[in-house]
């Protein structure tokens, strides 16, 4: 476990050291629990957006990129950019949620 320095109100600093650690661990878990809930909402939105494009084109993003035509119109280019964005958001949030869930256990 890594040690970090945290500034706390005097009333917490006056509590016995063993209680300080317990209080801070509980506080961190509480904050992480709330963060996970926020990130899950954003992950859900990204998942819905990816599903929208998969349904629209009848393929995965990887298949879409591999079959992208040289003469694609502006709409297809815009979809590529947006779909790519949500693919990346989904990936990053998925990894972050996994890490945060480990902390909150």
Task: Count up the domains.
Answer: 1
Determine the structural class based on helices, strands and strand pairing.
Answer: mainly alpha
- Rg over CA atoms, rounded to whole Å, is 22 Å
Q: Report mean pLDDT, rounded to a whole number.
A: 90
Low-confidence stretches: none
Shape type? rod-shaped
Quick one: biggest sheet?
none
Taken as a percent bin, the fraction of beta residues is under 5%
Number of distinct beta strands: 0
- In angstroms, what separates the terminal alpha carbons? 15 Å
Topology record:
Elements: H1 10-13, H2 17-57, H3 61-66, H4 74-104
Molecular structure report:
- The protein has helices at residues 10-13, 17-57, 61-66, 74-104.
- The protein has 105 residues and is mainly α.
- It has one domain.
What can be said about this structure in brief?
The chain is an all-alpha fold and 105 residues long. It contains four helices and no strands. It has one domain.
Keywords for this structure?
rod-shaped, 4 helices, mainly alpha, 78% helix
């Amino acid at each position: 476990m890594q040690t970090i320095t945290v500034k706390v109100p005097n009333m917490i600093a006056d509590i016995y050291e063993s209680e300080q650690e317990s209080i801070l661990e509980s506080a961190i878990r509480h904050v992480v629990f709330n963060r996970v809930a926020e990130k899950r909402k954003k992950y859900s939105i990204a998942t819905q957006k990816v599903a929208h494009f998969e349904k629209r084109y009848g393929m995965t993003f990887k298949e879409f990129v591999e079959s992208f035509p040289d003469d694609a119109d502006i709409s297809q280019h815009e979809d590529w950019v947006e779909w790519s964005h949500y693919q990346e958001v989904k990936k990053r949030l998925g990894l972050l949620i996994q890490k945060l869930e480990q902390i909150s256990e």
